[in-house]
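Below sits our specimen:

——
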Amino acid sequence: DPVVGKSVEYYDSFGREIPPDIQKDLKLVVDMLKPNSFLKLKSNRVIHQNDNTSNCGYMAAKFLIDRFRGQSFPEASGYENAFKYNRSKHYEQQIERLKKTPMFGYI
């Protein structure tokens, strides 16, 4: 949250560095917001996704859901529990369980 948290967050399920073109776009967004102070750039470095899967969208959605439900950036990005930075097995298992969950019930 650029207003309350004084930060801009970037999430990559492979835990990669922010590409230069995305950094430029983030700077444009920050400039449009015209914050009253400098903002901290937060980027995850914990690997959530295996190279041989296509769960990127699920991983990004889970990160956003966790943030909207009140988890801190370290909690949602897995940094808080990351003694090793490759935690893809753990997160892939969570996503496979999520895929098996019915999305909508009866109203």
